[in-house]
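tool=predict chain=A
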Amino acid sequence: MAPQYPTVAESGLPGFEVITWFGILTTAGTPKDVIARLNQELVVEGET
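tool=predict ok
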């Protein structure tokens, strides 16, 4: 993706790992069916 830059391992950090996670927030009182739909759609997107 960026061959002009060294990899993390080449920079002196062999075994370096990155862990990411994402969260979605909404307002209190959001109907459960709306939350379920958001979850359904986000799971589908996360699998692509």
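Residues 32-46 form the longest helix (15 residues). The chain has a mean pLDDT of 93.
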